[in-house]
Predict the structure.
Amino acid sequence: MKTIRMKPIRHGRVSIIIPAYNAEATIADAVASCLAQTHPECEVIVADDGSTDATWDVVSAIAGIKAIRKANGGVASARNAAMREATGQFVAYLDADDLMDPRRIELQLEVLLRHPSAVLVSTDFSAFRDGEPDYERSHIASYYRAARLAGGVDGLYDHVAGMVGADGERSRFLVGRVFERLLGGNFVHFGTMLVARGACEAAGVMDETLRYGCEYDYLLRLARLGPFAYIDRPLLRYRRGPAQLSHDSAHGRMPLDTIAVLDKVRRDDPALARREARTFRTRYANAFLETSEMTVASDRARAAAFLARSLPFRPPPRDVSRIAAKIMLPASFVSLLKKALVRGHAAPAGR
């Protein structure tokens, strides 16, 4: 394994892009974590996406950053607006409620400068709740199903390329072409990425019609350009709190955006769609099943329609039966059944 001896990088301007919507409680800390980076050439660009709280007042009062105020258009729109103001050779992303490790940019930039064929470098991330220490140091496998199914990140990249770290804590970094693996499900956390500016320009702007799938769509476009790198070290603290809970509530609509992204890939590359037919079939089946299950409580007829749309893609019969039962059985019965199952699991085992 090749070892990289870390030296401070004194060249390579990095534009850190932060979209913000109603983030008055967290945006100052997020920006502070950017301004505390050990890499000396960072510009911070915050795009206030039509917030209705005091986000703009907080952001506009912070010295040493670029602040943009725009009408609400979604996270892709905010990132595109910030990108138009960026002057860096590299672009980093951060969400308005997360925190960067002080060495994040330095370590990521070292990997990209030593591996110019890599399109981007992402990292592991920890998870925390307000006022508490990190409750999980490595959160990537908990967050991304694809990472769990692969048995960890080692199963997602081609090889371990070396070690980074000059602070007494050396960490592996991995490199590989990941496009086909990404088709099976995302495992790159957007808020941890550092991307070469040329790759951003080659991939184009983020798709503003995909409110919940814009990141996945952009990652697939980037993955077509070349290898991805990954630092096996948590260089981001991911905040779990009310903002994430409200974002999670949108997950019922996210599978439909996944379908739209897959449709785009199939249109753009029919040969790939034929070659990866099994992967596409599985993703479509799962997306329609997820949408069906998440719609049951609010609209059973719509849930039934989504379940029917999954059938041509041959979903697992057990999942079909389970969701069909939820659709057909009275809600009161389903609630009682869930309570009974919980009590059953909680009861002490017999002798």
Notes: Confidence is low (pLDDT under 50) at residues 1-10. Residues 277-295 form the longest helix (19 residues). Residues 251-343 form one domain.
